[in-house]
Amino acid sequence: MSLLKNYPTHIPIKGIDRLIMGAACFFGATLHPENNNYITGIGEITAFEPVLTRIRDSMLSNKVGRQILRERPRITSKTLDLDYLKSLPPDTFGNTYYKWLQREKVSPDTRVPVHYIDDEELAYVFQRYRECHDFHHAISGLPIVLEGEIAVKAFEFANFGLPFAGAGAVISPFKLTQKQRTRLFDVYYPWCFSNGLNCKGLINIYWEQQMEKKIDELRRELGIESPPPDMRTLRKMDGAKKIT
């Protein structure tokens, strides 16, 4: 494998180094799931070329997917114009996404660039997936607490087939309490797997062009059912029960 950079943020690594890094990220993510460096690292290391090629090919076979690959849009607070999203009617996808960002105290500017995927086009495909992750949260109504992240990973695995998302859906529930695990398996996994499998390919959605659309209409177009019960509300109810 060439050690030359294929794109500005590329960090080429050899096979054995890739293996060592993958193992380090796996154990790091297991011990410190709050550390985003481990999560992003293992995501890229396990984004194997055949998997990304399949996703890229699905984009090439789709009109909107081809447009995304051609235009290479990036998702930041500037490209989205958050003030405009704030001004949209409350039942639009754009306003729903804006309110989700405020509620979860996150920003679209926090998605780090891809480093460890060698092919330049496949690196963009993974970058696009990474930057659209918060849209998946917003359309499903799931928060960024660990329980919510695991649920979104199940949703994404069912739709994208990315190995690290599937591994997260299988392994990460063991970090939860018994009550959280039961809720995840009984309430959220059925919704996430069913909708992830049956909805349109999310990689082919030009989310930036859907902001003015009513969110219920967008869900219908994508084949996504109404979201499951609000996770933060259920978690607060659990806390109230403990107090009483």
Provide a descriptive summary of the structure in words.
Lyase that catalyzes the C1-decarboxylation of 4-hydroxy-3-methoxy-5-(all-trans-polyprenyl)benzoic acid into 2-methoxy-6-(all-trans-polyprenyl)phenol during ubiquinone biosynthesis. It is a single chain. The protein has 244 residues and is mainly α. The protein has one domain. It is built from 13 helices and no strands. It has helices at 15-31, 36-45, 49-60, 63-71, 77-80, 82-87, 93-104, 120-140, 146-160, 163-171, 178-198, 215-222, 231-243. Helix 1 (15-31) runs antiparallel to helix 2 (36-45) and helix 3 packs across helix 8 (120-140). It is globular and about 50 Å long. The model is unreliable at 240-244 (pLDDT under 50).
Quickly describe the structure.
The chain is mainly α. 64% of the residues lie in helices and 0% in strands.
Structure class: mainly alpha
Distance N terminus to C terminus? 61 Å
Q: What is the 3D shape?
A: globular
What's the number of structural domains?
Answer: 1
Strand runs, count: 0
Low-confidence stretches: 240-244
Proportion of residues in β-strands = under 5%
Order of helices and strands: HHHHHHHHHHHHH
Helicity, in percent?
55-70%
Average pLDDT, all residues: 93
Figure out the total of helices: 13
* Cα radius of gyration in angstroms: 18 Å
Main pleated sheet: none
Subunit structure: Component of a multi-subunit COQ enzyme complex, composed of at least COQ3, COQ4, COQ5, COQ6, COQ7 and COQ9.
Membrane topology: Peripheral membrane protein
Binding site for Zn(2+): 133-134, 137, 149
Family: Belongs to the COQ4 family.
